[in-house]
Amino acid sequence: MDYYSVIGMAIRKLPAELAHDAAIRALKLGIIPSSHAVNHPMLKSRCFDLDFNNPVGLAAGFDKNAEVVDGLLAQGFGFVEAGTVTPLPQSGNMKPRLFRLAEDEAVINRFGFNSHGIHVFAQNIKKHKKNGIIGANIGKNKDSLNAVYDYSVALEAVYDLVDYVTINISSPNTVGLRDLQQKNTLSALMLEIEKKRIELALITKKRKPLLYKIAPDLSQQDMEDIVEVALAHKIDGLIVTNTTISRPEHLQSKNRNERGGLSGKPLFALSTQTLRDIYRLSHGKIPLIGVGGISSAEDAYTKIKAGASLVQLYTALVYQGFGLVREINEGLIKLLERDGFHNIKEAVGIENK
Questions:
Q1: Do 20 and 90 share a structural domain?
Q2: pLDDT score of 112
Q3: Domain presence at residue 38
């Protein structure tokens, strides 16, 4: 049994949110050893005008306040997305708000964008060494009446500190947030955010990619509308998907009926079908990051063949630890070789072609 497995077992014996805090603390203290990243030409790609050494990223939600970005990059991720962070500090929803569904290899959370605020987030990012691709996932404050203002403030604060920014419009735990995915509202939001980016690009002389993270609980019309708006505004990419408010009938855990967003294995089929649909509707013209239920190289490869240029994971780490990152990357090389691909880009969306 390796060193991380021992630490992981100890952490998992703690209550869920306390275990998460302990993992952050362990990374801060350097107790969790680094893992050499898999560096192979088959895994390298360029997406959103950024060069990725491998396609496996950490999804937002783990490092909400950008406290341990360096420690996470040292686990072999091709990129790390910190956040979700809000302009003003907020405590989020009442505890308990994080629940393991061990029998289902899943998690339900209803954090509600608990955040130390964009100022602390930015200060933490400034402390980190620049040794990998870092994204910032930004959201609106719970009581804010002006989402555009919140996203603009957060975007300005992190714009020159990270490699890309994700606009989170799909968390189920902030009332009204998912309404931002509606066609007219989304179009207006994208228009205003793009104006802000143009302003910031003129100041910094840099054009940073902007991505939007969408929900898996979308109708066919919702997806068609999102793709239409995204293409019209020429957005850099979509992250597909966030957690789901649905509850598959096969869930076994006693926590299965807790309110909040469900992530982990039970989300895989739904999120992958959403990814497949978005890729098909956009004719592959929008770069996609596939996230939701990935727990193996085969899962990651399925997302890639369905249309994902990159993938992200989080919940599987709760059950398998950071060694999973290396396992997925090494497994992807074997799968690409098996199918006769020379580079991961060749496999993106192949099942739709």
A1: no
A2: 96
A3: no
62 and 91 fall within a common domain: yes
253 is catalytic: no
Q: Considering the domain boundaries, does residue 315 fall inside one? A: yes
Distance in angstroms (rounded) separating the CA atoms of residues 296 and 92:
31
pTM: 0.96
**Cβ atoms within 10 Å, residue 204:** 11
| Radius of gyration, alpha carbons of the chain | 19
- Regarding whether 49 and 18 lie in a shared domain, the answer is no
pLDDT digits (tens, 9 = 90+) for 198-235: 999 999 999 999 999 999 999 999 999 999 999 999 99
**Domain encompassing residue 251:** 45-352
Catalytic residue, from 144, 152, 170, 171: name it: 171
**What is the average per-residue pLDDT within 165-179?**
95
Domain count for the chain: 2
Q: Say whether both 128 and 175 belong to one domain.
A: yes
Question: Does residue 40 lie in a domain region?
Answer: no
Half-sphere exposure of 53 (CA within 13 A, CB side): 18
The alpha carbon of 278 is separated from its chain's Cα centroid by a whole number of angstroms, namely 17
Spell out the SS3 assignment of 276-339: HHHHHHCCCCCCEEEECCCCCHHHHHHHHHHCCCEEEECHHHHHHCCHHHHHHHHHHHHHHHHC
Residue 8: is its pLDDT beyond 90?
no
Q: Which residue has the tokens 């950071």?
A: 322
- Whether the Cβ atoms of residue 75 and residue 35 lie closer than 8 Å to each other: yes
Token pair 């408010």 is found at 245
Average pLDDT of the segment spanning 67-96: 96
**64 falls within a domain:** yes
- Mapped onto helix, strand or coil, the DSSP state of residue 173 is coil
Q: Nearest 10 degrees: CA dihedral of 290, 250, 62, 329?
A: -50
CATH number of the domain at 166, please.
3.20.20.70
pLDDT range class, residue 10, cuts 50, 70, 90: low
**Do residues 15 and 114 share a domain?**
no
Q: Tell me which long-range contacts 248-256 makes (C-beta under 8 A, separation of at least 24).
A: 250/104, 251/101, 251/104, 251/106, 252/101, 252/103, 252/104, 253/100, 253/101, 253/102, 253/103, 253/104, 253/106, 255/99, 255/100, 255/101, 255/108, 256/101, 256/104, 256/108
